[in-house]
Amino acid sequence: MATSNKNMLLNYVPVYVMLPLGVINVNNVFEDPDGLKEQLVQLRAAGVDGVMVDVWWGIIEQKGPKEYDWSAYKSLFQVVQECGLKLQAIMSFHQCGGNVGDVVNIPIPQWVLDIGESDPDIFYTNRSGTRDKEYLSVGVDNKPIFHGRTAIEIYSDYMKSFRENMSEFLKSELIIDIEVGLGPAGELRYPSYPQNQGWVFPGIGEFQCYDKYLKEDFKAAAARAGHPEWELPDDAGTYNDVPESTEFFKTNGTYLTEKGKFFLTWYSNQLLNHGDQILDEANKAFLGCKVKLAIKVSGIHWWYKVPNHAAELTAGYYNLDDRDGYRPIAKVVSRHHGILNFTCLEMRNSEQSSDAQSAPQELVQQVLSGGWRENIEVAGENALSRYDATAYNQIILNARPQGVNKDGPPKLRMYGVTYLRLSDELLEETNFDIFKKFVVKMHADQSHSDDPQEYNHAIPPLKRSGPNIPVDDLLEATKPIPPFPWDSETDMKVDG
Asked: Is the pTM of this model over 0.85?
């Protein structure tokens, strides 16, 4: 390979494709291996580097505590390997069903739901008392109420079992990423905007901390801070409110008071601690494997342009114009040598309704820049299925925000992009022709490379997590820093 081509290969950004949500169905059956293999062969021929798949807790451990059945997933992984693709595996501890794009229903294990019948506070709860059964509340992370195990222990045991049962695919380096699910939709957030409870875009959402366990935690924290009289917010409105209609988020509202700041710090720290604990368990489970750990952060782009950032705050991202809510997450990820995976890469401000005060482009720039400032790898996804050149070009721009570098690696480059999602519509001739051009441009006009070392993506054995991060260091990370400069257009464009 000529020197210039070698340099251009350093601009290569791998492309992965998410498999259908129900590729393994709720009964733990791999329904259509031949049909999937045919589709994977098409992806491989298009130069796609790999695929991503949800490994559903609700399927694997559905029969009872520690009764795992990995057989269907083993068959799936074998097909992926035969097709010459790499694999990103999501430890999906959440329910499928009730959110944007959820076309199948896969609840969390029934034996866990049964515990919730007698103790409904294991689930996230809004102020009116409505429970959300998508994911266990962080309030039970360290409560041994699941047949003697804590939630953290359940997640840890699951990941250890995955390593033991999928060891052949780890040793063969089929599996390159383990994305650790940390909340609804697999994202590190609260279920603040559930469609199955009537939320409609661009509603601000609701705080989800009114189960008894989080209530007790907040009261104890407030007492330690010298304010035993403080209670959880009762003035933050409901799912479909706008910020100015609430006392909490309005101009000069509660969120700016001492009490409001204390609550928001506590609320966001619960998520940070949750992610930190589970990543630590994931690190121990996969120690020594040639894999990267990853987490996903949601792209809450609506109400980003107003001072209160209401939708981000209810989701647990304490992000304001004078406070960075994402760099502390990146700092936690850095402790575990992980990747921060972010969504809404395809969105442009001009496509959004003005009523939503939305700014996805600035949000992407802030989050990715925060990850790069903390010296971690960042990856991304599109939030909605798109098949047009405009969306693909926005993804390419975000993947290499300062363009390609013909003399070596670009200054900024995403670790990889995962396209949502494999479907018959994607593979329809016109759509797939544009997608194939997108893959080529993501690869910087280079042909597919089977050797990650060629584009600086060699994966060493996972080493032990670093030391705990001091509180002062996390606080320091909340100080806003200007994002890296973004080009207005990409120099690698998809036509069509």
From this structure: yes
